[in-house]
């Protein structure tokens, strides 16, 4: 017998910002489709938002699939479009049962059910409720005993009891096979495949503007780190996912669980990038293990700073000190990761002066990415009552943190809009010059790509268009950066293939690490198999210095020549090895008087057609292990106190070996 179909559709809503960076997978439906399948139904996911399609295509899809159920999800801004989907479903076939869930319907179910096109609202966590609801409806029973729903019965609205949260998040089935993986990309990292893995649900804090703490009743549940890592590994191997979003509100709440997760990721050594958000206070708490974050693959951390003055932070119950935010951003930077943060504008007390102050302070916080968000009054958030008198916009589509919907006492809504744009312009002007002088190649490339994406986004262009065009200085810088990025890419593609990039944080001053690494006679100390370095052509190594080397592989000695292709004191060292298999090693140094971030990037000349495939796999695997070992050895040696003394003894002489 054919199983009944349930078609999950994402609302085709777009408002710019987050879509600039990528195409994000609907994890919500991966879980819900898993539950529907478990209930004996055939789930289908249609990600209309990602596909960039409109209601016409959605209509065609519903006709083509011919489902018994159409389900959608809604946050406040997407609610009108979600409703439109259900309306279309009913117009096609009034027998189709329509279901909606998500944060907005959970709290606003009375409003939602005023619309005849909605049959059921699932309130709260959805998996168990949906499973039970589908089974019940299939048996033609009244769902009045099913916890966590609201529906109409004889013109009355029935609200059943709340459903307790699922105890074991690891028990939930997922329908990863229904995802059309080619659709999901993170544009900032070339050739990436973007996935999302949830490691926890909820947050125990109570920021008054936030919907999430209300949705999860200030509770928090974490998954077993082993299961999370197994899921990441599965998606990496099976579907080639190499960029993962942790969509959790608060993944770091339990330090020991979090550290275990990081340790397991480090142990697996997968070549992946992780994006996450957390609270500033946890970054300070974790200052001793932040290097593990980076080593585990975390490259981008969003910190919700929200406000730059203590008064506002206290008003919104953010439970954080101004200094904590500043320190957190500094620590993340020091550990080689990218920071993103947001500042909320448009509180009822806002004035042009308070906005200027926020802008000035946001530059002191100095994240890599700053967002200046328009305060959105979710109609179910704690703050709503206070904000209600100032709301001038009733269209939920504008409750997206971009369009201002609140008119402060002393400013017009247009002034708020313009001030937000000014903040963006002013902040990013400064950023561009900063990026140009960055030495961390990964970070520089990441930021350049992001800038280019932002500047070519129709949302930003449209917004900037409101107050004029991109200032000529910015335009010039973008072009310059664009050219640099292009040349960088060309060099890599034409001359060699960048195979491995690995970084480590060393608790030693940059000068010390540089003088250690830039001393060829010490290389055999930390490169396994390197027997000796001889015949150095100059007294002190510099660009153009040549040397001879002997390497031992399984007892067989191989000798060759090397040249220092690039030499920038305390910044960069590129070594080019000539042999049967030419190889380049670029070593980048960044940091300060206390810490050094050391990055090694290994590249090869492209091998011939037949050999290239095998060579690249073998070389890459070998070099991930080798590069990691080298970095760790350097870290140990540079952090040992006796190395200073040893360094002092070393003086590079042509032909001598110490
Ligand atoms: C990933 C994410 C995105 C992705 C969405 C990808 C996708 N298609 O799902 C992207 C990056 C595109 C995105 C965009 C935006 N987002 Co967003 N996003 C998130 C994030 C981080 C995680 C959501 C998630 O996947 N959760 C995991 C799943 C399993 O949980 P869930 O979605 O809540 O679903 C459960 C229940 O709600 C329920 N349920 C939900 N839907 C349904 C449907 C049915 C039928 C049933 C039965 C049950 C059910 O069951 C699910 C399983 O238990 C949340 C913050 C957070 N931590 O939740 C913000 C969040 C949802 N986003 C938010 C916002 C504001 C936006 C933007 C407007 C931001 C912007 N200006 O660009 C845009 C809107 C664009 C759009 N069209 O959606 C806000 C919403 C606030 C609100 N109350 O309205 C949140 C809460 C972030 C915040 N800090 O406030 N977002
Ligand atoms: S810490 Fe974040 S998720 Fe938690 S209540 Fe505050 S804003 Fe919401």
Q: Main attributes?
A:
single chain; alpha/beta; TIM Barrel; 3 domains; disordered C terminus; binds cobalamin
Number of domain modules: 3
Shape estimate: globular
In DSSP terms (H or I, runs of 4 or more residues), the helix count works out at 24
* CATH top-level class of the largest domain: Alpha Beta
Runs in which pLDDT lies below 50 for 5 or more consecutive residues are 465-469, 481-495, 607-614, 644-658
Named once each, the bound ligands are: cobalamin, iron/sulfur cluster
E-strand count: 22
Quote the distance from N terminus to C terminus.
Answer: 81 Å
Name the structural class.
alpha/beta
State the share of residues found in helices, binned by percent.
40-55%
Rg is 28 Å
Which strands sit side by side, in order, in the main sheet?
2-1-3-4-5-6-7
Please, what is the CATH homologous superfamily of the largest domain? Answer: Aldolase class I
Strand share of the residues?
Answer: 15-25%
What is the CATH T-level topology of the largest domain?
Answer: TIM Barrel
